[in-house]
Amino acid sequence: MSDTATATSPPDQPRILDREPLVSNNRSYNWITERVCGIVENRQPALWWWLFVPSVLLAGVTVFCFVYLISTGVGVWGQKQPVAWAWDITNFVFWIGIGHAGTLISAILFLTRQKWRTAVNRAAEAMTIFAVVCAGLFPAFHVGRVWMVWFLAPVPNANAIWQNFKSPLLWDVFAVSTYFTVSLMFWYIGLIPDLATLRDRCKNGLRKTLYGLFSLGWRGGNRQWNHYEMAYLLLAALSTPLVLSVHSVVSFDFATSVVPGWHTTIFPPYFVAGAIFGGFAMVLTLMIPVRAIYGLHDLITAKHIDNMAKIILLTGTIVGYGYCMEFFMAFYSGNAYEGQVFLMRTMHGPSVWYFYCMFIFNVIFPQLFWFKWCRKNLIVVMVVCMFVNAGMWYERYVIIVTTLERHFMPGSWRTYDATWVDNWTFIGTFGLFMTLFLLFLRFLPVIAIGEVKAILPQADPHANDHHEKGVHELEIEAGKVKVA
Amino acid sequence: MARTTLKRVHGYLAEFDSVQDVYHASEHIRDAKYRRWDVHSPFPIHGLNDAMGVERSKLPFFVFFGGLTGITIAFLLQYITQVMIYPTVVQAKPTNIFTTPAFFPVMFELTILFSAFTTVFGCFAMMGLPRWNHPLFTSKQFKKFSDDGFYICIEARDPKFHQVETKAMLEKIGGKNIELVEDEL
């Protein structure tokens, strides 16, 4: 009987029903420190430079486009009535959605005690912050006179007029700025022990001074860890409703309007699921190459990628449900305007192919993850994630632009065309995002060193005395299974 | 004239091999009724608070009031500006106490924001950070704490501290590389 054979196997073998190890090859604490700090301390591979230089140039393109926009006027963007929100808000919602996976991994998976999160949470949180930076640019510049953007802050303007706090646009300002601030603090708190590791490893000099400054004199005392862990738990507990609220508030920008195609109650959950979906795809898009380039296979194992692929499958299916439910409600409500929007989207509108790209990329492709070999095959995973990244951009485009193109009055219908400024501003933000991410790889530990060490089997103080028993071991004790 | 450096004893620092060793050593020191001591490790050790007899962090207590401040500020900001100072009537929608639900999103966000600030700064205050220097940093071996070293430091200001007995106890419970950490005054 094979089960009993495993039950009586020597203690160094995995016990029955043991989970796959989160760090493979029984790595030591020191190995993890060396490997992760090595990324920061050694010379970067040539590929890093091959990615960094074009990214900086692309980021420069965004800067140029914004300078051109400010000096010429918002007319350089392709939006006119009725499509007053076009690529700017599409890009804003796209980027802010990317950020959500980071918070999901660091907060929700922390609260639900998913220990596999530790290998990817640092990079995912960094991604969150950089994505929100990219997102924030668009609403700031779409107001046109960007130097007037302080009108969004809750201070009265020169005529003593206050902002309209009943407007979802102002809620958005509060939601996004709170999200950015809290994500940044969460990320920094997590970094402190690892910055101390870097500080203790480098020789005296500028690096030592800077890591020393930012690690705040961390000494890893348990009396410190006690408060630190509580702070981490509290931040996770605060970030969880926050991340759900941010994309809900973003969806209120649309859902509280009277525009057919926007005015739906499914928007908040559907936006949140879409954000997590798109964000996870971006985490995988970034982490699979990072894992290969820096040899992090023992820390980010096949199991991690498998888990994230499953989350993509789940959220992708929720998003698919959202799409179908929008159609069903348009039909079931009997509202002619609502129905017309969806007919235009799928049958005879000017941007029909955007809809089909969205649907195929976001709903059909992730269904491949039902098959284990697809989740195990990194090329398949990368391809699906790329499609999902693109698909989520199409989703925002479909919601925003195709809805506005066919507004209430047929007389004012107009097809939207993006200009070169629209295109390059958006493409350039990828450069900005990549620049920030590559700098992060260069100067900060890409994996949460302390947290990964804490999930090693030898980090359990009770590892040798009274461990919990596997189901079969309990059955052997109870005499249900005979040991040969 | 040669300068004399004055030194002050900070305490004994002892290294332990593993999480299990440091855990059991902590139980011993707790039972020996030491108070001014700490375990330094590269990651938080599960259950060590009980082994050390350290109480649960009081941080949530402060964070509650942080959140309360946030929600109050958000409500006052919106009520005073929208109802009292400058009622903005958009699409004939009134602003009064009954329109408070429209203020909920901002109240929610500021509750989170203020709670998060209280968490971060409260946590720093309770951890005694930021701190540029500390006597323990004079120890050469202490650097290992952030890699794979587990240390226990019993401070000299502990009422039970004794130059000979404390060292003997640390040896008895498995401490290695025991070092008397001294700090320049």
From TrEMBL, chain B:
The keyword Transmembrane is annotated on this UniProt entry: yes
Locate the transmembrane regions by residue number: 61-86, 106-129
Which Pfam families does the UniProt entry name for this protein?
ActD (PF11821)
Record key words, sorted: Membrane, Transmembrane, Transmembrane helix
InterPro entries recorded? ActD
List the PANTHER family hit by this protein, alphabetically: LIPOPROTEIN-RELATED, QUINOL:CYTOCHROME C OXIDOREDUCTASE MEMBRANE PROTEIN
Protein name, entry field: DUF3341 domain-containing protein
Per the UniProt record, the source organism is Phragmitibacter flavus
**Organism ancestry:** Bacteria, Pseudomonadati, Verrucomicrobiota, Verrucomicrobiia, Verrucomicrobiales
